[in-house]
Amino acid sequence: MDLALLVLALLCSLAVALCLVLYLRLRKNEARIKAVLEQPSKSDDASEPYELAAIDQYLYDRCCRYMTEFRPFLVKTFTLQDLANAVFTNKYYLSKAINRFSGKNFRQYVNYYRIMYSMDLFRKNMSLRVTEMAELSGFHSTTSFNQSFKVVMGESPSIWCSRVRKKQMERLK
After folding, report:
1. All residues at 6 or more sequence positions from 83 whose CB lies less than 8 Å from its CB, including other chains
2. Pairwise CA distance, residues 78 & 68, whole Å
3. What is the pLDDT of residue 148?
4. Residue 126, domain CATH
5. If you placed Cys at 137, which of 51, 71, 98, 118 could pair as Cys (CB 3.0 to 4.6 Å)?
6. DSSP code of 103?
7. Distance (Å, rounded) from C-alpha 5 to C-alpha 120?
């Protein structure tokens, strides 16, 4: 019993230490970004826009890496705040970086990842129906999946699936 309490106390202290490290890291990143953004503007300083662009690029790259590695977009309730927390920034800076480097708002950006994921799913299992593709890739409804798919790919998912199936059949012949 004493050993179990000792292990539990150790685990609790490790969890507290981890939370503290993550919190300090988040504060350090936010302080660095805030310092750059709050620098007094100088008319003769041409490097300021480049520094802001570099910070935005850094945030966007971290965001893309996180989306690819962890696939948080598969969760239907995934929000900008969730992503900002994951990459240790605030949602204002992250939204600005996504808009600047992808040309999309957050919802469009997430839906792009969902569409790409659904296409990979279909290529692996061509018996999937459009409703199943939508459900498995994190969309709330088939309607929103169809609309997003058409925006990203320029055609409906059913037409795209038919075309991919046809190509696969031709390769097998």
Report:
1. 63, 66, 67, 72, 91, 94, 106
2. 14
3. 96
4. 1.10.10.60
5. 118
6. S
7. 47
Domain check: are 167 and 122 in the same one?
Answer: yes
Q: How does pLDDT run across 114-168, given as a tens digit for each residue? A: 999 999 999 999 999 999 999 999 999 999 999 999 999 999 999 999 999 999 8
Mean pLDDT of the chain: 86
> Do 67 and 80 belong to one domain?
yes
Q: What is the pTM of this model?
A: 0.71
Structural domain tally of the chain? 2
Structure tokens at 19: 């939370």
Residues 84, 72 contacting (CB under 8 angstroms): no
Identify whether residues 98 and 117 lie together within a single domain. no
What is the domain extent for residue 73? 47-103
Chain position carrying tokens 């031709």: 170
Specify the pLDDT at position 147: 97
